[in-house]
Every structure is written in structure tokens, then in C-alpha cells.
Amino acid sequence: MSDVVRMYRQGEAEVLQLESEDAGEPGPGQVRLRQEAIGLNYVDTYFRNGTFPARPLPAVIGVEAVGTVDAVGPGVTSVSPGERVGYYFAPGAYREVRLIAAAQLIPVPGDIPSDVAASVLAKGLTAWGRVRRVHPVGPGTLAVVTGVTGGVGSLLAPWASHLGADVIAVVARPEQVATLNARGLEHVAVAGTGDLARLVAREERPVDIVYDLVGQAVFDEVAGILGRGGRLDLAGSASGEIDASLLRTKAAGVHVTRSSTGDHLPGREALLGAAGEVFGALRDGVFGEREVRRYPLADVVRAHRDVESRSAGPAPVLIP
Fold this sequence. Notes:
- The protein is an alpha/beta fold.
- Helix content is 29%, strand content 23%.
- The protein contains 9 helices and 15 strands.
- The strands form 3 sheets. Strands 3, 4, 5, 6, 7, 14 and 15 form a 7-stranded mixed beta sheet that branches. The protein has a 6-stranded parallel beta sheet with strand order 10-9-8-11-12-13, with helices on both faces.
- Strand 8 (142-146), helix 3 and strand 9 form a beta-alpha-beta unit.
């Protein structure tokens, strides 16, 4: 028997219950994966609290993890027992052992610890989709990134800077500025203070791309610094979705994009290539030191509370 976290209804963090299950044997095309670290993402709270519809209840939420292949089912030749692998979007991750299609697995380099890999895979692939596909950045690009202290933003902003873009990072609180400066992001604006407009004006050129991971709380500021022909990428909505009518009025003339990570990964070759870039950037120190916050799977309720209160940091994981 192995641990699993289920919910029988959507609601507050307390709906998550630790139980036991027998994962069973892998079927055709499947592997049995003994998970070592489970990525904890803000979107998990949406599936839990009802913002997004859950799978048929009772449900097991969570979409990413890293672990070791325990057994393979008929027809599986791409991986073998003992190999360490991860996945970035396969609902049902909050468990110690799970069955999963072999086609969804991504090899994890031996020099990257499982908890670090689980903290960066889905978030890193999302960031990759932005800087490589939505609006490829390079020298001469002026980019604004909101939500840079969150999971995706903490990867996206330094990656865009590493690729040569001039990045203006937007944070929620003044005390976060010094931390980002120390991590190499020189231009940091505190939301709601006028900093963003002043920093953009100082550049004396138009903003090419705003990668927005916050949503409602910063929309007025973001719309105010984008000129006709600029691009607003709605990559997240931590403070709530933006009303479509606001986009039509305040973002007139702006190219607005909204896409999922999977939209930029059309096949397995693309997925493996993008994952390789994420792991390479991690290895090269592009993202800085990853301060992984580890929660025992049994403490999933506390973990969800911390994620919602923004106290879990950008890299929380659950440890079975």
C-alpha cells in the first residue's frame, strides 16, 4: 500500500485527505512510478477550491512529479525499471506511487536532484514557451515580467535577461526589490507605485512584450505602458482573470495572446528539446539558486495554505 491524497469535494485546504491505495500493475504502454518529489503549483489550488472544475470526484490533483520507474507494462521500450524520470502535466500526481503512460515521461539528468527537478519542470516549460515561442527575446528586446517572485516568473525574468532582453520586473512589495537586485535583475518596479511607468519612460522606447502572470491586480498599469503594436501575453492570473471588455478598451491596438504550455509542445521531440533547455539553464545557473521548500505529503493541507498565502516561495514540492 502507498499514500495518496484525495478530495471528495472542492473547497478549502482541509478537503485534502491522506489515504492509502494499491497502485496496481502497469497496463499496456504504462509504467509504475515511485515518486520522489511532487511539484506544487498555484494552479493546484484552483482545482482544489473550485476555480477550475476537478476531475470526477473523488479526485487526486497535482500535475507533475519526478520519481523512479518501478515496473513497466506490456509494449513499453522507451524506459526501464530504475530510470529516473519526470512529467509536467498528468493529473493525479498527489500520490506516492502511480501508474502513468510512458509517453508522458521525461528523462531527468543524474546531476539534478529530484526535488529541484520537480520544482522547475512544469514552471520551466511554461517559461520556455514564453521566451522561445510566444515572443522570442534577445538583445534589444524590452520586456516586462509581472509576478517575478512566483514560480514561473522567478524563472522567466532571469531567463529573458540571460537571452539578452532588457527586463523590467514587477513585484508586489518594496522589500522584494533588493532580493531581485541581488539576483541580477537591476530594474524592478513595485506595483501600484508608479515605478513601472517611470522605468519604461526612462528607456525612451516602446515595450515589446509584457509577460503577465498576475492578472487583474496589475492590468491597468500594464495596459498603460503598452503602445499600439506591443504584445501582452496573459501567461497567468494569480489575482484573477482579466475581463474581456477591459482588453477591448484599455488594450486597443495591443496584440493579446493567451496560450497553455502544451500549445508550444506539439510532439514528444519538442517536449524533450524544451525540457533539455530548461535543465540546461538550471545547470548553468541562469535561474540562480533554487531554494526548494519541501513539505511531507502528509502535510499537504499546510502546503496549500502556504501556497495561497504566498509564503511557500517559488519552488515548493511535496515529498511522499
